[in-house]
Amino acid sequence: MTVHHAKVVELPSHFQKLINLADAKMGTSIVSCSDQFFAQADRMLQSHPAQFIEGKYDDHGKWMDGWETRRKREAGYDWCVIKLGVAGVISGVDIDTSFFTGNYPASASLEACYAPDDQLENATWTEILVNSELQPDHHHFFDIEADQPITHLRLNIFPDGGVARLRIYGQVVLPAQTAGTLIDVAAMQNGGRIVGYSDAHFGHPNNLLSPGRGVNMGDGWETKRRRAPGYDWCIIALGQAGHVEKIEIDTAHFKGNFPAFASIQAIYAEDATDAQLIPQSMFWPYLLNDQPLTMDHIHEFVADIQKTAKVNYIRLNMIPDGGISRIRVWATV
After folding, report:
1. What is the pLDDT at residue 178?
2. Which of 86, 177, 222, 240 is the most interior residue, by most CB within 10 Å?
3. Residue 177 belongs to a domain
4. Residues 207, 234 within the same domain
5. What distance lies between CA 14 and its chain's CA centroid?
6. Which residues does the UniProt record annotate as the domain Allantoicase (predicted)?
7. Whole-number pLDDT of residue 298
8. Half-sphere exposure of 67 toward its Cβ, with a 13 Å CA cutoff?
9. Which residues neighbour 270 within 8 Å (Cβ) at sequence distance 6 or greater?
10. Is residue 303 located within the same domain as residue 251?
11. What b/e sequence results for 13-49 when a residue is b if at least 16 CB atoms lie within 10 Å of its CB, and e otherwise?
12. Which of 104, 139, 172 is the last residue of a domain?
């Protein structure tokens, strides 16, 4: 069977400093939907781009990588209620209809509510995206003007059809932290995000920030084999500024391709753009000097951490190349 992968579309610049709150890796899940006859709604939440597999069918018809409802034969529209893994303030959305051509919805709208107790019966829903026209096989980026955190979304599609991916771009809103609380400030669900990186040929550094351990070698950050002097790196914006107490670097599943060493540089910077951070990062002071790594292992560092003031950005250096599955940066906030 021939597999086609959705074209990579560059995010609008003002989306690039935001996190996809609808990522299944964040714990986002489907609560309910009006119909999912042709394709399960939870496929919309997958982090990898949609794909199209020629000739693949199941008992319900053509297999599609997204949420697809049956053809509506009465008045009304289809809807899907989504629970975000973490509360957040939304600034933009991408309703992606990749590979949905003769079966995409004519239009879509979004409603949102804040219900941390999951009691949706009495929740107040607010429309955050008016009913907007959609196109086939297309990324639809919409700006959202909102200043209150939300926990649940309702995607309405008119009248029926399929959506490949739903991306909800915003900022994580964490519960108030008691002073001195130790949390993983690099974790995606705590607001950590990737600012930039040298290479991601085999695996994107976003995987470093995902919950749990990597499920296989593809669930990590892996670069191509380096054929020139130097080393690979990625910059992580921490979800909160803090004083780093412990660092974990996990090379799960990387055996013949783990890095020889890793080091970490760090800084505290306010109001810095990603474009400013990247060239300056090579001069940041070291939080963790070169440390040898081994295959398929969680490396914990406490005593080797250089004592610094609070930091909110780190640069992970992978020397010279290879793969790392996860990084955990435990800090008091």
Report:
1. 65
2. 222
3. no
4. yes
5. 16
6. 27-172, 191-332
7. 98
8. 27
9. none
10. yes
11. eebeebbbbbbbbbebebeebbebebbebbbbbbbee
12. 172
User: Which residues contact residue 147 at a Cβ distance below 8 angstroms, ignoring those fewer than 6 apart?
Assistant: 89
Q: For strands 78-96 and 29-33, give the pairing.
A: antiparallel
Classify 210 in phi/psi space as left (phi over 0), alpha (psi -120 to 50) or beta. Answer: beta
Domain boundary among 121, 154, 172: 172
Task: Write down the residue that tokens 């599955």 correspond to.
Answer: 325
In a domain, 140, yes or no: yes
The range of the structural domain enclosing residue 209 comes to 182-332
Asked if residue 118 is part of any domain, the answer here is yes
Residue with tokens 């055996």: 255
Q: Where residue 95 sits, what CATH number does that domain have? A: 2.60.120.260
Pick the closest to residue 72 from 95, 41, 38 (CA basis): 38
Q: What pTM value is reported for the model?
A: 0.89
User: In this predicted structure, what is the pLDDT of residue 271?
Assistant: 85
Number of structural domains the chain divides into: 2
- Percent of the chain scoring above 90 in pLDDT: 91
| Residue 44, both tokens | 């919309």
> What's the confidence (pLDDT) of residue 179?
67
Digit-coded pLDDT (tens) for 303-318: 999 988 899 999 999 9
pLDDT range class, residue 174, cuts 50, 70, 90: confident
- Report the alpha-carbon distance of residue 263 to residue 261 in Å, rounded: 7
**Type and span of the H or E element at 278:** helix 274-280
pLDDT in tens, 112-159: 999 999 999 989 999 999 999 999 999 999 999 999 999 999 999 999
Per the prediction, the chain carries an average pLDDT of 95
Indicate if 222 and 165 belong to the same structural domain: no
Same-domain check for residues 102 and 203: no
Tell me, yes or no, whether 13 and 60 share the same domain. Answer: yes
Would you state the pLDDT for residue 16? 87
For 72, half-sphere exposure in the C-beta direction (CA atoms, 13 angstrom radius) is 20
